[in-house]
Amino acid sequence: MVHVDVKKIKSLKSWGKIIFPASKLKYYPPQFILRDPVQQNVKASFQKGNEVAVIVFSIKNMAIMKRGMDTTVLKDVWKEMKKTFQSVVTKELPSEQIVAVRDYHQDGIALFLSIDHKVDYIPNMDSTIQLILEKLKEEEKHNQLLVRPILSTGYMFIDKQIDILPDAIYLAYQQALAMAQKGFKSEFNEMTIALGKIVANKDIRLLAQPIMDVETNAVKACEMLTRGPLGTSLENPLQLFSVARQTNHLYDLEMIVLEKTLEQIKLTTWKYDIFINFTPPTIGNQHFVKDLKKLMNKYKGISPSRITIEVTERDSIEGLVYFISNLKLLRQIGFRVAVDDTGAGYASLNSISEIMPDIIKIDRSVIQNIDKNSVKESMLKGLLLIAKEVGSVVVAEGIESAEEALVLSRNKVDLAQGYFYARPTSLSNNLQTLA
């Protein structure tokens, strides 16, 4: 676990100036900067139930740029880069997702994003980062620089468990910067070691959230959700999987989740279906099917037909050579395939047409307040028509009220999950509830 450096925290007041999207500037006159609108916006995002990610864009070749330019020119380059960055971000990302953009005295530019999700997933950070980098590269073509900035990136989620918000923001920034400057920061080394220990000791916990029949309210399945070691910064699944991805432990971690799930099914004699999340890079790994078969042989008696492989739809499947062929092999073995986060992810309709899933899971961003929003209900109807065409069962995620559930019922949605029905708990507790 990474410790907070109190001396660094005290330097918080000396951080660089705030840069905001043009659409938000009117809300933040100069005198308001003293109240730190980053904190206010992060707090507001938390109050909505959202997570906040910090993405740091750091200049890898800053030392070379300093040698090749005098101080005045370098300041102008930095100023132009910030302006371009601000322009790209406001143009390419939804305004409601942008919490703030902040300049940290040439250490890097930090983009704060509000993530509207309460469940267990790895947000599509890589695609967001790649989009911004590509757009910045396009803009750079117009600049006549002898030495162009080379950006490296890293990201981290702000830990809600830290009581003092400025400390939580600063720590997340430091960790994201460490990820961007891999190998140069002790924080990165600490997180790499922590992930290595988690993988080596298989030190994760699993919770299960029931998936219900909308009409009968009967349990039909459970989705397995992952938590890191209790009481650590990696207990939060967003932190755990973000660090795993950036330290090249993601495949190993997801295979441990599969093994622990099979182990729990055996121990609890769970008889219902199980949904397990996998990212496209893991499914597209050339060893995935072979490793999965090994685990199934280790836990004999569990039929593949009871396991649904959820493809986390916030990742692109482009360029994954083995992805489609692995899915075909999984289906031949007897596994079912679901597309997760439909309606919120990367190229939803294209993914559905490529994968032809057995199950389509509709993201909570479509479901949230659907009883008050006719456009959202129209979106739901459209997705139901697509599911019917594909021959997929539909699961609605993130149901939090009876009113939302009523909309699902009148639209004849098959299955649903969310806090309205049940919060995540252990498989054994789910069995006791059913008994």
Number of helices: 17
Uncertain ranges: 1-35
Q: Helix and strand string, N-terminal first?
A: HEHEHHEEHEHHEEHHEHHEHEHEHHEHEH
Output the CATH topology of the largest domain: TIM Barrel
Task: Please report the first level of CATH classification, the CATH class of the largest domain.
Answer: Alpha Beta
Radius of gyration: 23 Å
List keywords for this structure.
alpha/beta, Alpha-Beta Plaits, EAL_sf, EAL domain-containing protein, 435 residues, five-stranded antiparallel sheet, 17 helices, TIM Barrel
Report on the architecture of this protein.
Strands 6-7-8-9-10-11-12-13 form an eight-stranded mixed β-barrel, surrounded by five helices. The protein has a five-stranded antiparallel beta sheet with strand order 1-3-4-2-5, sandwiched between helices. Helix 12 (323-333) links the parallel strand 9 (307-312) and strand 10 (336-342). The chain has helices at residues 6-10, 37-47, 62-68, 71-92, 125-140, 165-180, 186-201, 237-246, 250-268, 280-283, 288-298, 323-333, 348-355, 364-367, 374-390, 402-410, 427-434, and strands spanning 18-19, 51-59, 98-103, 109-115, 151-157, 205-213, 219-227, 273-278, 307-312, 336-342, 359-362, 393-396, 415-416. The protein folds into two domains: 6-184, 2-Layer Sandwich (Alpha-Beta Plaits), CATH 3.30.70; 198-434, Alpha-Beta Barrel (TIM Barrel), CATH 3.20.20.450. Residues 1-35 have low confidence and may be disordered. Helix 9 (250-268) packs parallel to helix 11 (288-298). The two termini are 39 Å apart. By secondary structure, it is an alpha/beta fold. The protein is globular and about 70 Å long. The chain is built from 17 helices and 13 strands.
